[in-house]
Amino acid sequence: MGELKVKLIPVTPFEQNCALIWNAETLKGAVIDPGGDIEKITQAIKSAGVTVEAIYLTHGHLDHAAGANELAAVLGMPIIGPHTADKFLLDSLPEQAIRFGVHGLKAVKPDQWLNEGDTIAIGGENFEVLHCPGHTPGHVVFVNRTLNFGIFGDVLFRNSVGRTDFEYGNHADLIIAITTKIMVLPDDFGFICGHGASSTIGAERKSNPFI
Fold it and tell me: Total domain count for the chain?
């Protein structure tokens, strides 16, 4: 089995890290959080020669989920995730978009919701699903303990954590999820974030002021 490769594709004015992750040997993989700029994403897929098998969503915010319908239609692949607690956000994507001057967007209806303890496959590797609410009620992260690698969306960033100043945000829930589910991972565990640079658990243990 070949190693997993990762290409981060910043999309939307929010510079959200859409991730293309694939197996270097089989060239099969997945797209995480296609928030927009679908032509940019499809070009990255074509350039890498990847066969995308699924589209995964970490949560229901516009910059992470708004392009899911279009990409799913182009690729003929299912949309999986997040947790059903974010259904209200995916249902309200048209209204979220209008606030930023984008009209005609449709609500996203995943083919499958995800729960704590579920497993997803990316490039032939299994990732454990952890429900980490706080930034949004239904936010999930994906963890592979064997590869020491995770996809954390907007839960944990380099030297920061996800925003919780939304009416549905909950800072206490976010910190509990981070400390009980994420910071128990080893120091050399690497992860990609929904925005900005990647990091490791050890680096955040040392320097993240929110933990």
Answer: 1
